[in-house]
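Dear support,

I submitted the protein below through the web form. The confirmation email said the job was done, but the results page showed an empty box. After a refresh the structure appeared. I'm attaching both so you can tell me whether what I see now is the final result or a partial one.
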Amino acid sequence: MEASSLPMLAAGRFLSPPPMLPAPSCPRRTLPCVRAGPQTLEAPEAPKPPRPSPRRSAVAEVKASPDPVAALTRFEDVLQTQDCNIILRHCGDTGCWDNLSKVFEWMQEHGMTNAASYSSYFKYLGLSCNPARALQVYGAIQDRSMRVHVSVCNSVLGCLVKNARIDSSFKLYDEMIREGLLSGCMKLKQGYTKAMGLINDLNSRGLQMDSVIYGSLLAICASHNYCEEAELYFQKMKDEGHKPNLFHYSSLLNAYSENANYEKAELLMKDLRSSDLTPNKVASNARVLPYVLKQPLHVMLTTLLKVYSKGGLFEKAKELLTELEASGFAQDEMPYCILLDGLVKGGKIQEATMLFDQMKEKGVKSDGYAFSIMISALHRGGHRKESKQLAKEFEAENATYDLVMLNTSLQAYCSTNDMESVMSMLKKMDELNISPDNITFNTLIRYFCNAKVYHLAYKTIEDMHTKGHQLNEDLCSHVMVQLGKAGFPSEAFSVYNMLRYSKRTVHKSLHEKALGILVPAGLLKDAYIVVKDNAELISPPSLEKFARSFMASGNINLINDVMKALNRSGWRISQDIFGRAIQRYIRKPDKKQLLLCLLDWMTGQGYSVDSSSRNLLLKNAQLFGQKQLIAEVLSKQQTASRTIGQRLKKMI
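What the results page shows now:
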């Protein structure tokens, strides 16, 4: 597919407009014995250093501005919340307390704060000895989830303790616990461990556990798959005289659903029915079943449906779904999605398709989740045409998308090589202001690479890296190699650098792949950068090819540096390589000092020239002013080489 067939790409912000290229399938060489010059995507010039992104430039300007608020206003359309957090931390690190508060207030006014913003601000208020301001800001937080966010709570408490406000910190801590600080642990990776720390602190201070705290603990155990611990807390709560409510039963049932433990789930439901929380008993007392009880019951039954679906008990799951429909609890797509997901993961795609069709016939409202499950299932099952048709059906009936549905549709279109629909999804992503994630980027990179539109694959990698996403090494390494084969070594080297400087350890084969692209392309200075930092990870044959090429046509001023880098790697440089370097130097009499330095270095490392290079040096000894000088240097080399050789024999 040619680049000229992609006019829609320039309209989006997701990928910047690519430069126009000749079709990759066109022959690039007419004479195989003549090496083609390196090509680039822009022009056949030396690659320029990458320009900083607009966001980075904006952050730098705001940092340097004497009036950061004015600068923030100027770049409001460019900056994101994480950029403002960087600026906020800069004000704190430099001790500009006045600017710190001004920047934070600006962020609040423009809705550009998150948990990290509050956490950083409270930390610096502690350092600036302003606990009163911290209490004021914390007290004004309206979002309950933000008030009980663990990092926010830790920062404001740390601010109070640092400034000897012990009484205030204890009072606020108790308030946080009551508001649901424990619940904030549910979304943390180490949430269970943090919750246990808070509970231990409660116990050490003699505070009593209540049903609210037990409810939070059960929810945390369920969300982190601590089923046995959830059972223990549920029983302990009952032993202490706290009566479980529907939320407690639902949390424990959710814990059972993670392990598909349907036997314990059924026993729990039996226990629930024997309590006074069942709808029938409540209705007989109150005469009316309030909505607030219907909703938890709905959640309970839906969770039980998840237990059956995960456990492969599809007949029981279907019976329960029928009960939910009869009770009016299946008016949205969630119960259907739970069973659809179970059927799909159980390999029953045909049954899932039938259930999905029934759901549509019944007019069940869908936000796209059920469509997403089915499109992905058909795609993975090899039914790519059907997957694409379903994505088209959703697109025709719905104007709104979320990121999951966009990614799902994108995968369906990419798998069927529907470039027009792919571009339509990217345009929709722009219109809905949805930020792409790793799945979006990797899907596009694979698609562009398979379509041999390597310039778009490169631009997507570049955009992904600029936006701070972690690159997929295997995928980007493949693109790098393909760029090299297509005649774009500069861009291949750029991909290599993006991988190399990302926050991870790359596979050692990546360096050799990069070297294999750069050396044939004649980008020897870039190849030297690869070798200098990673020579010990590169095979001797590849180092040999690089060394031969560099001695023949590399920057003559770097020859000695290249020799030292190769030697540091443990690779023993051959006399042939030294001979090539000597020939280069002799052809450039003005570089005689570099040649003398090389010969002296060789002596110190135990290297010596071969007879051919020795004769060449003696023949051109007049370059060094005195013939005796070169003779002495060569004599020292021979002596040093014999000495080192004898030492090696003794060691053997």
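Response: this is the final, complete result; the empty box was a page-load delay. Residues 557 and 594 are 8 Å apart (CA to CA).
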